[in-house]
Specification:
about 160 residues, alpha+beta, Rossmann fold, 4-stranded mixed β-sheet, disordered C terminus
Length: about 160
């Protein structure tokens, strides 16, 4: 492969295994592009949504949020410093789109459960607070890290 791209999925990877597999299938000179959207946490809409996600996501959310940190990017690339690209963008969502966004999180309760219905009510209230002309602007910073990871280090003797 000349290029391997992972979009919105890197936080699920076992970093060491992914690096080894990517290097196995990459051609010499091939690269990896890790791409995802980071929410603009200073944005009042995201702050309101975070309150809902924290309230209804519980312990599963805490585990996912800690795993999503960018700290794995340097570990994945090793001594290679990847090119880092950033650009702002936004999605304009109707009420159903915002509900879809909230319930797309793996840690949220089922939409038809009692807790899910409570979360939906809270999300609709947030939508009504921030909507203009039937849409809410959901702001993101797109991130891309592009480079070739260092080879996986050999195991130390005796391990």
């Amino acid at each position: 492969m000349d290029l391997i791209t992972a979009a919105q999925a890197f936080h699920w990877f076992d970093v060491e295994k992914a690096r080894a597999e990517f290097l196995r299938v990459l051609k010499p000179g091939g690269c990896v592009a890790l791409v995802w959207n980071d929410r603009v946490l200073a944005d009042p809409l995201h702050q309101a949504l975070d309150e809902i996600l924290a309230e209804f996501g519980g312990e599963k959310r805490k585990a996912v949020v800690s795993h999503e940190a960018q700290r794995d990017v340097p570990r994945f690339f090793g001594n290679c410093t990847p090119a880092e690209l950033r650009w702002p963008h936004e999605h304009r969502l109707p009420e159903a789109g915002l509900l879809g966004l909230v319930f797309s999180r793996s840690y949220m309760p089922g939409r038809d459960s009692k807790r899910g219905m409570e979360a939906a009510t809270a999300a609709i209230e947030v939508f009504r607070r921030f909507a203009r002309d039937g849409m809410v602007p959901v702001r993101y910073m797109a991130l891309a890290f592009v480079g070739r990871p260092d080879p996986v280090p050999s195991a130390a003797p005796g391990t």
